[in-house]
Amino acid sequence: MTEPQELVEKLLTELPGWLPAQRWFAGKDRPVGSVRPLRTTVLLEEPRLLHVVVEVEQADRVEAYQLLVTDRDESYEATGDGELTGHLLDLMAQGREIDGLSFEHEPDAELTDGLRGRPITSEQSNTSIIFGSQYILKLFRKLSYGPNPDLVLHRALRGVGCEHIAQPLGSITGELNGEQVTIGMLQQFLPDAVDGWAMATTSVRDLMADSEALHADQAGGDFAAEANRLGQAVATVHADLERALGQQDADDDDIAATVRAMGSRLDRVAEMVPALGPFVPALREAFDKALDGRSTIVVQNIHGDLHLGQVLRTVNGWLLIDFEGEPAAPAAERAALKSPLRDVAGMLRSFDYAAHQMLVGQDEDPLLTERALEWARRNRAAFCEGYADAAAEAVGDPRRHGELLRAFELDKAVYEVAYEYANRPEWLTVPLSSIARITGEGA
Ligand SMILES: Nc1ncnc2c1ncn2[C@@H]1O[C@H](COP(=O)(O)OP(=O)(O)O)[C@@H](O)[C@H]1O
Ligand SMILES: O=P(O)(O)O[C@H]1O[C@H](CO)[C@@H](O[C@H]2O[C@H](CO)[C@@H](O)[C@H](O)[C@H]2O)[C@H](O)[C@H]1O
Q1: 101, 224, 246, 393: which has the fewest Cβ within 10 Å?
Q2: Domains and CATH numbers, the chain
Q3: Which ligand neighbours the alpha carbon of 139 most closely?
Q4: ipTM associated with this complex
Q5: Rounded to the nearest whole angstrom, what is the distance from the C-alpha of residue 349 to the centroid of ligand 2?
């Protein structure tokens, strides 16, 4: 058996090469400088299971990442070892504390222990492990200091009986440099769930397959009724968040600051991604218009990174997951109160994505492009109608705030340009072509 110190030292030599190959590693756009150990906790002696936090230094940033490490596997990665991850569930069921790490279950949740874990295989920003058909544990890979919005908002929503979330059941927390960090969140697992992205892209594929003969409202896999229900679910979650945590009116200064932040993000992303350059003047103009034509809006806790991959359809309706906010944003920005219109804009962007990603890498075909536009228009409208039907009075129909909603959408598209540039360069064309369409500037 390898001693913890020796294991960590071996690991440190491999991390600079290994980290950039991980989907959850947020610094893939620049080389890894140094990797230093911050804390190591022995969770099991035999077989060896360590919880390791490392600090990764890159050009302009220093970030903490957590790893679950074993000497049973040559890669040292323990998240794929069902027996070892099962131990994490057992520790939460028992409410244990090990060397400053607290494993807790929610006060009224009784957990079944003795289950083996299996990691989910889909692309993601964190690592999630499923136990039986009951639980899913998300290990937050990049650790942020202070309260974790995912855990805080799930608990608040549970407190008001929200029906559109997977119930939070437990947590793993600890301290790093004297501040609280959330390491993991355990939730009810919905084995019958299908994510919105899978459903929406199936619908687009059906339509494309029949594009010669059918329009979006005639295709077998029409998604509009689901988009409408999804709009209702999102509006209900916003109303529940308001009930749980309150709401404020945004004054002119708040709106001006929000629009200024859009401009700053644009500057940062345009510097990094030259292909955004030609659209900068039109984007600035759209942001200015939003400021000139501003209407009264409210700010509150919202989801913060809403898209079709963050919603699950179960037999009982739509659920929203992953209330962490934009993974790249600093913790303070993610915790700030925001307009619910941001979430609406995120979902509208996602309908655009679902329709247009199908065209990536294909020869230009005007009919398919027209069908993609038609699908997106139809489902965006259905979503807004559903949202307007269920929204609280202070929020109302998102389409009332035309220029501001458009600015939120464009701001999200700018964020996506940076996201695709760093993670999936072949998809960069999806947000760029949307920006071209929305601003009326040729791509
Ligand atoms: N409660 C749940 N029940 C079933 N599947 C879930 C549940 N929560 C998450 N998932 C699945 O796990 C994936 C990743 O979850 P998510 O919270 O979005 O993690 P990440 O922060 O890594 O993106 C989701 O896309 C979904 O497919
Ligand atoms: O789900 P995450 O928190 O990891 O969100 C990040 O990754 C998303 C992609 O997985 C990314 O979403 C973008 O691509 C989606 C399709 O894959 C699309 O539905 C979204 O509209 C689009 O923004 C998200 O932006 C990023 O934060």
Answers
A1: 393
A2: 4-188 (no CATH), 194-441 (3.90.1200.10)
A3: 1
A4: 0.96
A5: 10
